[in-house]
Fold this sequence. Notes:
Blueprint: H1 2-12, H2 19-44, H3 49-73
Helix pairs in contact: 1-2, 2-3
Amino acid sequence: MSLLAGLATSVAxxxxxxxxxxxxxxxxxxxxxxxxxxxxxxxxxxxxxATTLRYxxxxxIYGFLTGLMFGWFWPH
Length: 76
């Protein structure tokens, strides 16, 4: 997922962009990849919403950490 978030971020932004934009964009892409796909399991396959909420919180944490790493290593 981080590879896809990095690919999308590198296509959307050039080197030297403000790091806040890099963190925000890559974290959002990573969050979508890590957790939004899990929501359909509760909607269509009646999985517990508590489990989906835990996956969503985990996805938010992983997405935020992914965004921070891309912001930190983004070329100036």
